[in-house]
Amino acid sequence: MPSVLVQAIQSLNADDAFRPRFDDKQWALFESYLQQHKLRAGDLLIRHRDMDRNMYLLESGTLQVYVPDAGPARRAVAILRSGAVVGEPSMFGETPRMAQVEAMSPATVWVLTRPRFEELLTRQGDMGIELLRSIGAVMSERMRANLDRGLPLA
């Protein structure tokens, strides 16, 4: 039976859903590369302009993605539900985080660090290629959505 995380990922109905084509054995192997973290409402998961290199999968709860403006103002980017992926661009670049991510409710996330990501790519080549394809599809859909909304890409 799939884990709660896998069930959340597979049931998310969103254009930018993370959809790796893994079988049950591959899902279990993928999960072995992840670490679980619990968040309280109001906790920051990702800080704008930080340089960490982690990608997160949301098992439960709701996350708010926004760009801080001057003072207390925020420019809303997205609300993420269970099954969503966030922070995926950090797997590829060396640039600061583009947005801030905060828990709107208690949440459980699973983190894939860049070293573990690179280890998976080295040890599980076919899974790594599928993971890269899936992350790329998420980033492509989010870029398209931002262009449709008239938001800048940088």
Describe the protein.
This protein is an alpha+beta fold and 154 residues long. The chain is built from four helices and eight strands; from the N terminus they run ααββββββββαα. The strands form two sheets. It has a four-stranded antiparallel sheet. β4 (63-68) and β5 form a beta hairpin. It is globular and about 45 Å long. The mean pLDDT is 93.
Strand arrangement, major sheet = 1-8-3-6
Mean pLDDT score = 93
* Number of separate helices: 4
Rg estimate, integer Å = 15 Å
How many strands, which pairing sense, and closed or not: the largest β-sheet? Answer: 4 strands, antiparallel
Distance between the termini: 41 Å
Q: What fraction of residues sit in β-strands?
A: 25-35%
Q: What is the percent of helical residues?
A: 25-40%
**Class inferred from helices and paired strands:** alpha+beta
Number of strands: 8
Compressed to H and E, one letter per element, the order equals HHEEEEEEEEHH
